[in-house]
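Appendix B, record 7
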Amino acid sequence: MNKNNLSRSAGITKSTLRIGLLSTTLFALFLSLTLPTQAATEVISTIKEDGTGDYTSLSAWEAGENRDLVALDEIAVAQIDGTWTNPDTTAVTIDGWVTDATRYIKIYTTATARHDGKWNTGKYRL
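Structure tokens (predicted):
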């Protein structure tokens, strides 16, 4: 018995195979769209010159928060906030962190600490 005769006797046709493959593909797509995915946890630390935040310099934040973000499933956020009368003069080196595309380091200034495109001694300066 050749292969074509075996398939016909088992009731398998090209159409049946296509429908089976399509059903399997659609089921896999359904699962990927409906199963909830959990995003990495954001861990936010504030950096404020006046001492009311978690740190007073970006360098101190980097030294204190440096870790394996992938293993912890975290996003490390340095939120620079408040009015700054002095520049942050300590050099910063971001090194030793373990990150990937979904667990990373985010450093930003809030509107209070951010300049508006021109020099401002009341805003964050590094």
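Remarks on this record: The longest helix spans residues 14-34. The radius of gyration is 27 Å.
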